[in-house]
C-alpha cells in the first residue's frame, strides 16, 4: 500500500520537474547568447567607430571635455555671476572717417550756420580728395512730394556751367541731325543712335529726340529709363528745336526734382571754380527754387541748406540765403 502511494506521488510530480528543466534550459540559452554578443562587442573591429583607434580617440575627447568642465567650475567658484564681457564704446561718425577727412573737418564748426559766401569759400578749402571735386547743394524744403502741386521739378542753365564735359546724342531725322551736329552734338542721326542702342553702348550723357521720333525709342525704354537717359518733355530733351537743346546741354543745363523726403540735390560746379563763380551759380539755383514755390505751402519754405564737396564735410548755410 505504501509503495503504491509512493509511485502515485512520483507520477504526479514528474510533469512539474520536466517543466522546470525546460525553463532552466531556455534561460541557459539566453545567457549563452548574451555572452556571445558581449564577447563580440568587446572585440574591436578593424575599422570604423568600433575600431581600437576610434575608441581610444573617443576616450581622449571625453577626458578633455571633463577637464574643461572642471576648469570652468573652478573659475566660477566663489562668484555669484559669470564675469561680464568688456564692450568697446562705439566710435563717433567723425572718428570712423579717413585721416584726410578728419583733418579738413576741423575747419568746420559743427553747430554754426554760415553765410552763403563763407560756406562756399570754406567748401573750396575742405575738399579731402586729390581730383577736382564737385560742389554739391542740398536744400530741404517744407513740401510734401505726394501732392502733385508740391512735387517740384524743373531744369535751367547754370550761368557758369557745371564744369563737366557732356556728351549729347540727338535722335532726329537727317535735317535736324545735321543742324544738331553744327550746334555741337557728339552723336546725331537715327541710324547712328540706333546702332548704339542695339549694342547697348550708351556712350552719351544726354539724349535729345524730336516728338515725331519718340515712338521708335519705346523698345529701348528699359535700357534708357533706369539711367535717366530717356527723353522727356519736362526735362527739355523732347523738342522740335534740337539746336537750342544741344546748346543748353553743352552750356550746363541741370535738372532737379525733390526726392521722397522733400530735398533737392544739385551739383553747382567744381572746386576749381572758386567762390565767385560758385556764388553766381548758387544764386541762380535759389532764384529758381524760390520761383517754383507752391502756392499751397504757407509759412517757412526752407527747412535747411547744406553745402559739401565730393566726400567732404557738410557745411550748414543760413536759411536766409534763399
Can you describe what's shown?
This protein is an alpha/beta fold and 322 residues long. It folds into four domains: 1-35; 43-73, no CATH class; 99-164 and 253-322, Ribosomal protein L1/L10, rRNA-binding domain (Ribulose 1,5 Bisphosphate Carboxylase/Oxygenase), CATH 3.30.190.20; 165-251, Rossmann fold, CATH 3.40.50. Helices cover 42% and strands 15% of the residues. It has nine helices and nine strands. The strands form three sheets. A four-stranded antiparallel β-sheet has the order 7-1-8-9. Strands 4-3-5 form a three-stranded parallel β-sheet. Strands 2-6 form a two-stranded antiparallel sheet. α4 packs across α9 and α5 packs parallel to α8. The N and C termini lie far apart (142 Å).
Amino acid at each position: 500500500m505504501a509503495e503504491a502511494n509512493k509511485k502515485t506521488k512520483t507520477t504526479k510530480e514528474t510533469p512539474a520537474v520536466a517543466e522546470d528543466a525546460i525553463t532552466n534550459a531556455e534561460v541557459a540559452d539566453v545567457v549563452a547568447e548574451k555572452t556571445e554578443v558581449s564577447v563580440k562587442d568587446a572585440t574591436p573591429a578593424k575599422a570604423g567607430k568600433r575600431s581600437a583607434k576610434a575608441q581610444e580617440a573617443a576616450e581622449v575627447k571625453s577626458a578633455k571635455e571633463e577637464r574643461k568642465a572642471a576648469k570652468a567650475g573652478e573659475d566660477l567658484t566663489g562668484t555669484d555671476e559669470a564675469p561680464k564681457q568688456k564692450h568697446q564704446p562705439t566710435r563717433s561718425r567723425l572718428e570712423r572717417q579717413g585721416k584726410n577727412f578728419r583733418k579738413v573737418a576741423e575747419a568746420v564748426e559743427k553747430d554754426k550756420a554760415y553765410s552763403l559766401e563763407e560756406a562756399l569759400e570754406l567748401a573750396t578749402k575742405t575738399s579731402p580728395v586729390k581730383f577736382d571735386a564737385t560742389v554739391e547743394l542740398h536744400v530741404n524744403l517744407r513740401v510734401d512730394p505726394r501732392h502733385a502741386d508740391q512735387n517740384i521739378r524743373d531744369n535751367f542753365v547754370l550761368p557758369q556751367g557745371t564744369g563737366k564735359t557732356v556728351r549729347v546724342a540727338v535722335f532726329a531725322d537727317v535735317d535736324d541731325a545735321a543742324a544738331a551736329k553744327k550746334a555741337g552734338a557728339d552723336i546725331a542721326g537715327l541710324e547712328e543712335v540706333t546702332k548704339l542702342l542695339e549694342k547697348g553702348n550708351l556712350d552719351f550723357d544726354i539724349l535729345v529726340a524730336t516728338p515725331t521720333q519718340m515712338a521708335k525709342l519705346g523698345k529701348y525704354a528699359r535700357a534708357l529709363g533706369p539711367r535717366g537717359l530717356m527723353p522727356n518733355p519736362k526735362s527739355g530733351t523732347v523738342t522740335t528745336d534740337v539746336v537750342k537743346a544741344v546748346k543748353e546741354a553743352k552750356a550746363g543745363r541741370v535738372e532737379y526734382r525733390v526726392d521722397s523726403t522733400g530735398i533737392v540735390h544739385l551739383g553747382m560746379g567744381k572746386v576749381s571754380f572758386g567762390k565767385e563763380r560758385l556764388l553766381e551759380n548758387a544764386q541762380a539755383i535759389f532764384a529758381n527754387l524760390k520761383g517754383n514755390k507752391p502756392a499751397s505751402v504757407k509759412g517757412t519754405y526752407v527747412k535747411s541748406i547744406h553745402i559739401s564737396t565730393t566726400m567732404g564735410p557738410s557745411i550748414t548755410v543760413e536759411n536766409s540765403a534763399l
